[in-house]
Design goal:
Helices cover 30% and strands 37% of the residues. It is α+β, with helices and mostly antiparallel strands and 147 residues long. It has a six-stranded mixed beta sheet, with helices on one face.
Length: 147
């Protein structure tokens, strides 16, 4: 029989991410194994301190970032979460709220701590196309590449 993650561990992680603040980033060690790996389109880091830095940087560069978990699938010791990441760009005047749709693959230890956190989302469509100057170029490239 395949080892399973306790559903309470998944619920706990979801609650943590949906209520993440600059202050609560310091609590990552309660959710991640010491040598956990985090990978997304921009980062590939290992260890709680390095993962913490990714989230600290998020709060430094974006205004009001927050995660809304929209779905979950749990199998054995792994979980896949679908989410919306909502934020505003800090350095753009009159920036409206942006939403990135993505998913996270989480692997848990026997103790219910995250050992691998891999985020999947399309940086071109979900981010670059929303930037003022880069967006126009990305939309043009996408149109040229489509059939």
């Amino acid at each position: 029989m395949m080892p399973t993650v306790n559903s309470a561990a998944v619920t706990r992680v979801i609650a943590y991410f949906e209520s993440l603040t600059p202050q609560s980033v310091g609590e990552l060690g309660a959710y991640y194994e010491a040598q956990a790996r985090f990978k997304d389109p921009f980062n590939d880091v290992q260890g709680v301190a390095a993962i913490r830095h990714v989230f600290v940087h998020m709060f430094e560069t974006l205004e009001a970032p927050r995660f809304v978990i929209t779905g979950q699938v749990v199998q054995g010791r792994q979980c896949f979460l679908t989410w919306e990441f909502r934020f505003r760009f800090k350095n753009f005047s009159r920036a409206s709220e942006q939403t990135i749709h993505g998913g996270s693959h989480l692997l848990f230890s026997e103790q219910g701590l995250i050992t691998l956190h891999r985020d999947y989302w399309d940086a071109a469509e979900e981010l670059y196309e929303k930037l003022p100057w880069v967006g126009a170029l990305m939309r043009w490239l996408k149109k040229r590449a489509s059939s």
